[in-house]
Amino acid sequence: MSNSILDSGAISDQTIEYDSPIKPLYDSIIEAFEDSNEPTRSRIKDAGKHGLINSAIFIDPSSNPISTPRAHSSKEIQLQDTYLSYLWAYCYSMIGIQEVTFDYYKPEDGIALLEASERLKQLQLTLDWGSCLNDLWRIWPDFIPQPTSESDQVKLTNELFLHTIRYLMYHEAAHLILHSNSFDLAAGIKSGALASNEDLRRFTMMEIQADEFAYNSLFGASDNEALKYMKTLGAIIAHLSSFLLLRSSNTRSRLHPDMDKRLRSVMLKANVNTEPFVTYLHFTIIVGLQVFLNKHSPEHYARLVANGPYDTFDELERDLFQIIEELKS
Known about the structure:
By secondary structure, the chain is mainly alpha-helical. The protein contains 13 helices and 3 strands.
């Protein structure tokens, strides 16, 4: 893809008045945090009474490169419009790629990898725009539908986006509720201060606990299978979307569990047992990891293509995760 498509959107926020297309979803994002199951609502409310969390969600509208969600020392969860725009574009693209891939899926022919098509090229442009926000803020391009569109894919994207950002907000809420005495430790480590192995182990465990809290906070006793699927998909997308923001193919982390391990942890927890939802989840995972490899390690992706088609999802997922593990070296 030529750079001109992306560079044309690289306009300083000082030169235009820009009304973010994601802004109409601000209220829905806040409602998504508040609209949880009863145990989660009670726990967050109780934490608020004890001064551990400010239930107000702050959304930074400034036109800056991506900053991921965070729990702030002010006890509030902070989101950023640029990141929300990226996440929406990722959700939109993944739904589209999943649909294209599933349309070609014939179990008797095995599990094929992504194949070039005009539709996939358009969705790849959407992913390229979103991931480039990591380095430089850009206006929302005309070729990406806006969240206010009435199309079925946009409506589904909005639903998935809200489940995904809910999971991410609950992750940050966990830090406020469970780790309120650890902000100095976290700030010190993130600033590059020397940290002992015990400090790093403790920090990693905090992230594992926050992932657990976020996942468990999503589900209610009355959720039907379709709703469980969408909530699980949101948690999976929350992790998959972070892969594309990496600067390299190495998913190892000093301060968090390795990204692939966090994704696999969600996969193992998934309590979705009926079709077509099980197959949809498999497709999402293999598509998301292929998109990541194709961007960050084309030579390894080519090796994957040479080994296909695969007889089962398990075989393809095994090879994908094996390659990702190799790339940590």
